[in-house]
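[recover] target loaded
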C-alpha cells in the first residue's frame, strides 16, 4: 500500500514465464499484467500494516500461498521452514527464518545475490521486536536474525519490506 510504504516483489524467470509474488499488495492486477504465470505467493509474515493480496490470488486464481508454520494462518497454505528452497524456473529462492519482528517472519534469498528482508531489516533501521512477543524475547530473536542476514555478506543486495522506512522501525522518510 502506498500510504504505508509496503513493498512487494515479483520474482521469477522471465525466460520460463514463471514467477512468485512476495508480500503482494491488495491490488493484484499489477502482477497479472506482467506476462508471467504466477505459481505461488510467499509471505514474509503477517502484520496489521500489510493488507495482503494473497487471499485474492488464492480465491480468484487458485494460486497457493506459503508462509512459515508459526504464523498459524486460518487459510489454506503451504508451510515454509528455514532452509526450504522454492524454485521458480531457473531461479532459486531460499527461505531464511528471521524471527524477531514476528515469530513466523522469513526473509527470502534469491539466487544468493539478493535478499528480500521483509520487516526484519529496513533502510537505516531494524524492525521493532516488541509488537508480537515480549520485547526481550523479540530483541534476542531479532539479534540472531540480523546476524543471519549479515552473514550473507556485503555482495548481497538488500530489498526491505518497506521502501520509505516503517512505523515498525524507527526511521521514516518521504
Amino acid at each position: 500500500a502506498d500510504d504505508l510504504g509496503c513493498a512487494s516483489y515479483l520474482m521469477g524467470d522471465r525466460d520460463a514465464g514463471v514467477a512468485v509474488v512476495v508480500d503482494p499488495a491488495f491490488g493484484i492486477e499489477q502482477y497479472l499484467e506482467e506476462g508471467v504465470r504466477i505459481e505461488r505467493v510467499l509471505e514474509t509474515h503477517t502484520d496489521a500494516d500489510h493488507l495482503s493480496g494473497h487471499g485474492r490470488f488464492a480465491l480468484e486464481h487458485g494460486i497457493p500461498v506459503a508462509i512459515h508454520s508459526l504464523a498459524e494462518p486460518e487459510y489454506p497454505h503451504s508451510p515454509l521452514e528455514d532452509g526450504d528452497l522454492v524454485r521458480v524456473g531457473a531461479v532459486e529462492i531460499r527461505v531464511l527464518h528471521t524471527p524477531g519482528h514476528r515469530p513466523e517472519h522469513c526473509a527470502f534469498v534469491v539466487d544468493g545475490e539478493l535478499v528480500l528482508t521483509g520487516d526484519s531489516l529496513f533502510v537505516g533501521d531494524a524492525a521493532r521486536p516488541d509488537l508480537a512477543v515480549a520485547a526481550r524475547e523479540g530483541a534476542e530473536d531479532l539479534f540472531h536474525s540480523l546476524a543471519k542476514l549479515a552473514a550473507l555478506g556485503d555482495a548481497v543486495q538488500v530489498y526491505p519490506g518497506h521502501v520509505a522506512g516503517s512505523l515498525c522501525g524507527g526511521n521514516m522518510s518521504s
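[recover] notes: Residues 20 and 39 are 6 Å apart (CA to CA).
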